[in-house]
Amino acid sequence: MSAPASGRVAQINVSAGGVPKRPVPEARVSELGVEGDAQRNRTLHGGPERAVCLFSLERIEALAAEGHDIVPGAIGENLTVAGVDWSQVGLGSRFLVGEEVLLEVTRFTSPCFNIADVFLGREYKRVSQKIHPGDSRVCARVLRPGRVRAGDPVRLLAPASP
Question: How many C-beta atoms lie closer than 10 Å to residue 19's C-beta?
């Protein structure tokens, strides 16, 4: 068996509701989400099955190279991760973040008009898994809570099933 894929927490992002989310150096992660973070629409965002939103720094950089005005936190992810092969992330993937936090991916996010200003031509569906597989943020449930810090290791323990 090969070693788990490793990366790091590039940035932790929170907001009082909506986007963009702003960086914080560390935060506690509980079954209901990241401390200091809130969502305007709790029907569509947040809750135990969508407690933490993750996205790849490399995907953000690739989108920026296409001309989109995107930076970490701009489209609402709580954890921007670097060095993780995002093509291996899917439903059921598990991440160990730092030494404590264990997350399990529950769904790909559905992009909405609230993030449109970041994209050329307001084409927010550029991060839709259905239209652009591999370019979506993911939501995760928290299997084990704890503290996370920018720079913490991120290990992809269980890649997506084929």
Answer: 18
